[in-house]
């Protein structure tokens, strides 16, 4: 029976790694930007492929799918409520995604821009409030 339980030394060492990882976070973040696959130019290309127009098209497609799958209930009021709830959750997910992208850009690429890196601060081409407005229409 003891073999099926996780060892306590494994879980305590994992938590120690997490707590000590905060001191090495800056070094690893700057190391990420030095990788060719994660370079500043690669990040710019990815961000450029998700401009406001592309995100708007994606949100409109998502809204149509949500309305198709959740809007066909027998009770119209229930369907409207469910669709509204799913829209709010999608809006929150987009906002969370924006926040995560902003945090990564600030942590990984801002130090590079401050040290004379080319191109300045990377920016996300769509705004959270734009997406929120799209889901509320």
Automatic annotation (TrEMBL):
Pfam families: Sec3_C-term (PF20654)
Region: Disordered, residue numbers: 1-41
Limits of the Exocyst complex component Sec3 C-terminal domain: 26-110
Record GO cellular component, one term: exocyst
Gene Ontology molecular function: any one: phosphatidylinositol-4,5-bisphosphate binding
Amino acid composition bias (Low complexity), ranges on this chain: 7-31
GO biological process: exocytosis; Golgi to plasma membrane transport
The name this protein goes by in its record: Exocyst complex component Sec3 C-terminal domain-containing protein
Superkingdom as given in the UniProt entry: Eukaryota
